[in-house]
Amino acid sequence: MKILVTGANGQLGTEMRNLLEKECPGNALYTDIDTLDLTDVKAVEHYVLKNDITHIVNCAAYTAVDKAEEDKAQCAAINVDAVKNLAIAADAVGAKIIHISTDYVFDGTAHRPYKESDKVNPISQYGTTKRTGETSLIALAPDSIIIRTGWLYSPYGKNFVKTMLRLGTEKKQLKVVSDQIGTPTYAKDLAIAIYKILCSHQWVEGIYHFSDEGACSWYDFTKAIHRIAGITTCDVQPIPTEDYPTAASRPAYAILDKSRIKATYGVSIPHWEESLVECIDRIKMEE
């Protein structure tokens, strides 16, 4: 098995590198925009062929949700065109793909956790391009695995946890949206689930959902971050979405049903607060 991890400098890509270098050193290659332009189909095909790639874990994505409303071409290039190019390259050599998608393919109007078979209806440019990436991949490489996730955080890069830790020490008061519900997902937990699929004796193509267990609002999430980190000097106040306007619309409800990935691959999923404690500990150790 020779694994290519794209987007390797991002949150999930870094956690994949940490895990693979520990569990199967020498069996993976890691690329990001500085080493492989995924929007260049010839470059992607050449790289995959030259390095005898058997599995691709595509962690690369355009994730600036609000900026995507104006930067439509670049968003589509990374979330759609790059996915097509990976699919074409994988098909040429018989490689298999695990592609990371998002809960933003849904409109957030549900009242129960979303199943993989539920109707999609993205309400942002980001969500639309991620859904188009899914359908393009299924059309070109139907034996691929797609994993939808959401509210991802880690000790790496820019994310909500690190932002709230910083603002909690800089601000006396924060106002945080309390009517958008989802599940914080520790990138390390998702990396472990992906690794379990890679090492499994079976490959069952299709769409899977993965997030940590439980649910909360962004307000609840912030309160937990500050409590766990011991931040007591910041007054966090809940506000409705309408009081925090953004360029892109976001799903009001983004809970994912993880039954399929649990049943198919025996994935064990921790509660989001347990994982948050570990992540904050890691962040503090690296300060």
By CATH reckoning, the class of the domain at 3-158 and 185-213 and 255-269 would read Alpha Beta
Query: Could you tell me the strand content as a percent range?
Result: 15-25%
Strand order of the largest sheet: 2-1-3-4-5-10
| Count of DSSP-assigned helices | 9
End-to-end separation: 36 Å
CATH topology label of the domain at 3-158 and 185-213 and 255-269: Rossmann fold
In sequence order, what are the helices and strands, one letter per element? Answer: EHEHEHEHEEHEEEHEEHEHH
Q: Report the radius of gyration as a whole number of Å.
A: 19 Å
| Second-tier CATH architecture of the domain at 3-158 and 185-213 and 255-269 | 3-Layer(aba) Sandwich
Helix content: 40-55%
Low-pLDDT stretches are: none
Output the structural class.
alpha/beta
Query: What is the CATH superfamily label of the domain at 3-158 and 185-213 and 255-269?
Result: NAD(P)-binding Rossmann-like Domain
Q: Kindly state the mean pLDDT as a whole number? A: 96
Main beta sheet strand tally, sense and closure: 6 strands, parallel
The global form is: globular
The strand count comes to 12
Summary?
This protein is of the alpha/beta class and 287 residues long.
